Amino acid sequence: MQKSLEKCSAIDYLIVLGGRHVNETIYLADERKRLPSLVKHHRASPGRLIRECEIPPLFDVIISGEAEKLIAEIGELFSRCNQSPATFIAENLDMKTEGRWIADFPRIDNTLVSDGVPLKRDELPSVVGTFGVTASFDVFEGRMTSHIFSDTGPGCIYDCNFCSERRSIAGNIQDIQGAPRRLYNQLNETVSAVMQDHPSKGASAFVEDSIFLSGSPVAITQLCQLLEKAPLEVIFGGQFTIDQILRKKDLIQRLAKCGLRYIFIGLETLEPQEIGGMSKDVDGNKQTWKDRFLQALDFMAANHIDCGCALLFGLGEAHISRRNLLNGLIKLKQETGQPITLSANWAVRHPLRSSRESENENYLRWGTPEGELLEYFHRFGEASLEYPLPNVCAPQVGEVKEIILLLNEFEASDA
């Protein structure tokens, strides 16, 4: 990529980097104190790595935080500049542009911090309204599937120590009041987009919140009221925890009557105590995680809701526990038809801002060397040979291979 860009004029292109890694490596310790001098750079900050000449100066602008309005502002400035884009943008960017963001310009050694004007989330264009609907999730039986967002927060309401989306890193719930209406509007947009672009297909949507509407009973009730008052020809899915399903049965049933047909849960393991516990294991003192999972599965099936499970290996569990987990899920699917799908990840150590375990890592060894393990890793959403969790062994070829064989067996299983 860099060689291709070298053939272009310096004002023909602008490379902007953002995402979770940037949010975890370029940040303010206190969001209320918004000064460039207070911006912290983790050892793995792309801006720091460029300044220290550890990676090429490929990125013109590196954005941490809420960039929904900022990226449009940068694009508008870039379209007007006839000189060095980074310099022109840095000189003209308005700190009052909505959102809590940091814009780092490592090539010119400049960092800007927004005033922190809150985003008006109800006024932001939706993903489905902007890009339409092009996906189709198997779990929705051939319907076209949109990705929709309540925008109630950048992460999860729980604080599991192995998760990069945990509350203490990603932040708390935000702007929950308008979330039900935002979701309803996006469901409505989904129906319209599918009718226009895929008239022979039905409509479906997956709510991409870490937890559906942050698990708020009030917000879920309001969404149900909207769907009951003006029903839509759409089915949808989202994420809940096991304990939320069991604690909110009335709300889940109400959602099911409004179109909820799929719930994706973070099962992770059958033995939370083996991995040091999980924040979302709320009712662990009452009943085992496994027993509650089975109860939730039965409840979903009784309400015509399919279940998918996320599994996370490399948390410190024994390999026999992984085998038992997968063999148990295979048997369940053969006997009940549920869960219908699995996703698998291998736990990875993330920068996590000021985390002691990663504070000296530059994360430049992220890539997995060519070989058998690299091929196996393609089966996982996330996996790393070099960056396992602290005090946990790196993935072993034989163990990873066995897990893949069991995942294949699960996929081939039928009730």
From TrEMBL:
GO MF annotation terms: catalytic activity; iron-sulfur cluster binding; metal ion binding
InterPro entries under this entry? Answer: Aldolase_TIM, CHP04434, rSAM, rSAM_sf
Gene3D superfamilies in the cross-refs:
Aldolase class I
Q: Does the keyword Iron-sulfur apply?
A: yes
Q: Which UniProt keywords apply?
A: Iron, Iron-sulfur, Metal-binding, S-adenosyl-L-methionine
Cofactor(s) of this protein: [4Fe-4S] cluster
Keyword Membrane tagged: no
The protein, known as: B12-binding domain/radical SAM domain-containing protein
Q: Which organism is it from?
A: Pseudomonas alloputida
Classification lineage: Bacteria, Pseudomonadati, Pseudomonadota, Gammaproteobacteria, Pseudomonadales
